[in-house]
Amino acid sequence: MLWFQGNSMQLAKHSFQLLLRNLSASKTALPVLTLFTKDPCPLCDEAKEVLEPYKNRFILQEVDITLPENSAWYDRYKFDIPVFHLNGQFLMMHRVDISKLEKQLQKLEQQGAGG
After folding, report:
1. Alpha carbon of residue 31 to chain centroid
2. Which of 1, 15, 21, 81 gives a 20 to 30 Å CA spacing to 63?
3. What is the pLDDT of residue 112?
């Protein structure tokens, strides 16, 4: 069933692309970087631009905190977006901290390489 209200078609398209990325990434076990966001969110847009050079090192999963099913995240992060979790663990908020991201990605990549 397809919905054609507002951004639903775009969301469905994004979800499908994310699914394809997850399937292809499952072979390489890329970490998941979750972005808690809403629309509009200029700081989130800026953060995604900063992350662009790193996009081949993680799967970016966006969570719209304004959706009813994400109300717990809304209550927690409504004044703090963008917020990032890496593999389910809090990583950073408000702005991308490249040194922190790089350190955590390297740590995960070394663990994935067996060492």
Report:
1. 10
2. 1
3. 80
